[in-house]
Amino acid sequence: MITVHKELGDYGKNELELTHGKDVFDEARRIFYENENAREKMITVQDENQEMLYYLKYDCNQVDPLIYVDDYWNYSIYDEHIDYELLDRGQVYIFLELEEYTYQIARIIQMHYPDKDIFFVDKKAALFFCESDRLHIVSSINEIYNCYRSCISKTMMTIDSKREFLHNEMRFIIKRYRSLSVMTSLFWKCDRMSFGNKNPDKTFFLIKNTLDVGGMADLIKYTLYRVTMAEEKGLIPIIDLSVKGDNNQYNNGDGTNAWTMFFEQITDIPLEEVYKSKNVVISRDKMDIFNPYILEQHYFMDLQQACKKYLKFNEQVTSYVNKMYCEKIPDNKKKILGVIGRGTDYHSNRAMWTCEPLETEAFLEEVDMAFKEWNCEYIFLATEDENVYRAFMESNLRDKIISVDQERIDYNDAKYKNLWLAEIKVRDKTNGYSDNLRYLGILWILSKCSSLISSVSCGASKLAIAFNAGKHENVKIFSGDASRIFWGWKNGGSAEWGK
Q1: Helices (H), 330-458
Q2: How remote is the C-alpha of 192 from its chain's centroid?
Q3: Quick one: the chain helix, strand, coil %, rounded to 5?
Q4: When you count CB atoms within 10 A of the terminal residue's CB, does the N or C end of the chain come out lower?
């Protein structure tokens, strides 16, 4: 993103100078792209009389103190594949800051929606736009309310430029977005390839993103978000999670398609044929998660329906999970309480996306009460945390506990300090296929239990419920402490269904 400044501040002035014009951001973007050293300084912008007007500064697309995402180095507001659906939702657009993205979005609105109203709550906008009946530069939101009352009754969309990641469910309802997200919504279909001449009447969405430290639950959820979004947009999704060099826990970056290691492909058209097809939109890797359409799937998608429609174990996984169920669950025992003792990643001080589960002793007490209240015969305990496992096996419930043999992590051991579980598995060269095969087997058994209780809302609890299609007799999920995460759960306490 390129931002506009009247003062140099702590940044030195670049020797490069530009003349102010409607394409000044395009010119500056080219300079910053081609010259990394220029990104440490500001570009001077002058008027036709060579009088300094303002400075342009390169700012990384930072969404959190630790996380940066790709810049939009190559885009055109005249691209024929721009997706206008998000902007269609507004009648009045309020921009809180003038910068590269808000400038380009406003120009797109002017071209595509000449009869809609635009407000800039930033005096710098006067350098780039002339006020008119449809574009207004105001000093505050109050001025919009007091002077443009007719706009208040219309559907308003607010676009800000804040660096922090502020998305949540309500932002989609009240239509407040950050400019990075709006840019992603506009240009997500513009990154396309033509691999050949096959299927000229079809457009595919090739899901080919890195997996990094994500676990199996994330692999499933975030892939299904992309799949559902693509189908809603009229594209044919197909999955190729085979990014070479991606040091993930499934294939260690060897180029194997991590999806088909465990699941059936979601379309009947072979992947090989897609790579010979004429129209292929390619997912934008980590940028996808800032696409409002995918974020909407995160918050609002029916995971049960998505799993039922798209998620099919392949033949090897189907055989494995059924065998594990038969070996672990006693014959004719129908009242089994599935227990998820969330551990691992929340121990890391980088775990800003992870809810903290109910403390182990308190959770053990809740399980004891649920076991009795729901008249269960056995407990199926699922946990990768050695301390959680030990607490249960030393309790009065130990004779009722069934579990799967697996390596569990003791975070009291210094060698695991501040590491993600996936990082530990990669470091220790864990067999990613067999380890995740076992995880799917555990999820399958949890989905077959008569009741379910989890120390926190997590991927395992969500998928166990989704696999079960909501048929558990009783479910109790503790929401956890979400004060350190960007999205999701906001309140403490618990949520119960089916009692």
Answers
A1: 360-373, 386-393, 421-427, 432-448
A2: 21
A3: 40, 20, 45
A4: C
What confidence tens digit (pLDDT) does each residue in 313-368 have? Answer: 999 999 999 999 999 998 877 899 999 997 655 544 444 455 677 888 999 999 99
- What was the pLDDT predicted at 172? 86
pTM score of the predicted model: 0.85
Q: What integer best gives the mean pLDDT of the chain? A: 86
Alpha-carbon distance of 239 to 255, in angstroms, equals 13
Contacts of 71 (CB under 8 A, 6+ apart): 1, 60, 61
pLDDT digits (tens, 9 = 90+) for 60-113: 887 665 566 777 888 999 999 999 999 999 999 999 999 999 999 999 999 999
Answer whether 94's CB lies under 8 Å from 122's CB: no
Q: Which residue has the tokens 């299927």?
A: 199
Longest dimension (CA), the chain: 88
- pLDDT number for residue 221: 93
Sequence-distant (6+) residues with CB within 8 A of 173 are none
Helix (H) or strand (E) holding 64: strand 61-64
**In degrees to the nearest 10, what's the CA dihedral of 439, 441, 446, 448?**
160
Nearest to 94 by CA among 158, 141, 172, 9: 158
Please give the distance of CA 223 from its chain centroid, rounded to a whole number: 10
Cα–Cα–Cα angle for 80, 82, 84, nearest 5°?
Answer: 125
**Per-residue buried b or exposed e for 27-45, using 16+ beta carbons within 10 Å of the residue's own CB:** bbbebbeeeeebbebbbbb
Q: Which amino acid is at 165?
A: F
DSSP state of 358: P
For residues 200 and 279, give the distance between their C-alpha atoms in angstroms, rounded to a whole number.
7
The model's pLDDT over 150-174, given as tens digits with 9 standing for 90+, comes to 999 999 999 998 755 556 788 888 9
CA gap 236, 253 in Å, rounded: 26
SS3 label, residue 120: strand
How far apart CA 380 and CA 396 sit, in angstroms, is 15
Burial of 262 (0-12, 13-18, 19+ CB in 10 A): buried
Residue 226, H or E segment: helix 216-232
